[in-house]
Amino acid sequence: MTTISVRDIEAGDIPLLNGYWQGLSDADIKRMSIDRTQLPTPEDFAARVGKVVGTPVKDRVSDPLIWVLNGNVAGFTTLTNIERGKQAEIHLHIIDPKVRGQGLGTQWFALSLKQYFRRHGLEKIVCQPASANPGPNGMMRALGIKPVRTYVTKPSPICVEHEVTRYEIYGFGVPSEDLDALTKS
Fold first, then answer.
1. ∠ CA 117-40-98 to the nearest 5 degrees?
2. Which end of the chain has fewer beta carbons closer than 10 Å to its terminal beta carbon, N or C?
3. Positive or negative CA dihedral for 163, 89, 53, 9?
4. pTM score, two decimals?
């Protein structure tokens, strides 16, 4: 039986996440439109994430959640630019390439949305994946979340300017019972 869950980041997760960022292939970099020169050094990454781990959720400027498959870390999502009670931006990554394309990201994303809306009292979460990246765009369609627009921007400091598809998720973005059905393991 496959068991999936979402949990808070822990200090022990930092080396794995650091390894993910440092080990991105050229194909990964291209798919996500990342500027490799803008990635933090391993030491800077560990320090930044370590600071987040030591900060209460209500005081965080970013909020990572870990995606777990059968007891092993398989991915993560990070909420950034948090304006409590209003809005934030979300980024998602599946670390284990063998897990991609199985629909598990959709379930993890739904679980993450539920947590983020509750813990930060948000009205809206914005997700802006590269328009050419089929994974997150397909996931949004699977959740019934419609694109707002497609345009060229630099959605994060580590990205190059590129075409993104913007999704705005209000409340839960889809009826709560649909998220509940998706998150049953």
1. 65
2. N
3. negative
4. 0.86
